[in-house]
Amino acid sequence: MDPELEAFLALLPSIDLTDPVTSRKQLAAIPRPVPDTSGMEVEDRTVPAGPPVPVRIYRPAQAQGAVVWLHGGAGVFGDLDTEHGQAVRIAGGSGAVVISVGYRLAPEHPFPAASDDAYAVLNWAFDNAAELGFDPGRIAVGGHSAGAGLATGVALRARDEQGPPIRFQLLNQPMLDDRQQTWSQLAFTDTPWMTRDKLAAAWRHCLGSAPATPYTAPARADDLSGLPAAYIATAEFDPLRDEAIEYALRLLRAGVPVELHQWAGTFHGSQALPAEVSQLQIAELGAALRRALAE
């Protein structure tokens, strides 16, 4: 493990996915530095859908494109406030409008609630691109962990339903496969922050009594052709590592351009820490989005 990251292990908060409500309160109470939002407009809006979806829009000066951004949290915690710092950094690093989505959480709202919220925001953003200040031909979807899995499912759904033309997928440590049968899922039972058992609990909450579909567990999709180009980042000591790498390989075999970065010495969510490698991870997400939307 990266020595600088290892120094933070004792400070990581514990999360109990058997009690999501308590975990949400604990994580929301963690002090977070106030990000520098100078040079961008930040606005809270509500997307009319069924039910309405809260979003927070980050609009840098002279933005051309946009990304519908979906926060992490295993599908059971996280919100616009906990994602605020990372959304600011993505907007600043990419120069794109970031539309951060406050999608519904499990177990109160199992899938497809979160997926439906994300897809509704994508359609709203595309339809209102002129007002929001970006070119509708330069729209991306992205996210971290469960949010990256949702973004992947949104790209599949947009392809299948002839929805908005997504240009790019920005996927950081995506949660893609409820079956949990990859080598990293079977081996990483005691890794920092996220483990196989925690992910199993998350999938139980997210799926409820519904079967997994390619839109909720994208690794189940049979056909990956015709999808947008993707940047996929993985962490070395992460149960989700191998399903993301395998998905990247399947995209490549389907003729989809992919940039894959496996970050050595990192663990799930470590990009949120104030370590050098973490800063590099966030910076690269912004740079990849900037390149994709400028082409």
Task: Give an overview in words.
The termini are far apart. The mean pLDDT is 95. This protein has one domain (3-294): Alpha/Beta hydrolase fold, catalytic domain (Rossmann fold, 3-Layer(aba) Sandwich). It has 295 residues and is α/β, with parallel strands linked by helices. The protein has helices spanning 3-6, 20-28, 84-94, 113-127, 129-132, 146-160, 183-187, 196-207, 241-253, 276-294; strands at residues 40-47, 53-60, 66-70, 97-101, 139-144, 168-172, 229-237, 258-267.
Write down the overall geometry: globular
Q: Give me the CATH fold name.
A: Rossmann fold
CATH homologous superfamily placement? Alpha/Beta hydrolase fold, catalytic domain
Q: Uncertain runs with pLDDT below 50, 5 residues or more? A: none
Strand content: 15-25%
Keywords: Hydrolase
Organism: Planomonospora sphaerica
Protein name: Esterase
Pfam families: Abhydrolase_3
State the gist of this model:
An eight-stranded mixed sheet has the order 1-2-4-3-5-6-7-8, sandwiched between helices. Helix content is 36%, strand content 19%.
Produce the secondary structure layout.
Blueprint: H1 3-6, H2 20-28, E1 40-47, E2 53-60, E3 66-70, H3 84-94, E4 97-101, H4 113-127, H5 129-132, E5 139-144, H6 146-160, E6 168-172, H7 183-187, H8 196-207, E7 229-237, H9 241-253, E8 258-267, H10 276-294
Domain Alpha/beta hydrolase fold-3: 67-270
Pfam families: Abhydrolase_3
InterPro entries: AB_hydrolase_3 (IPR013094), AB_hydrolase_fold (IPR029058), GDXG_lipolytic_enzyme (IPR050300)
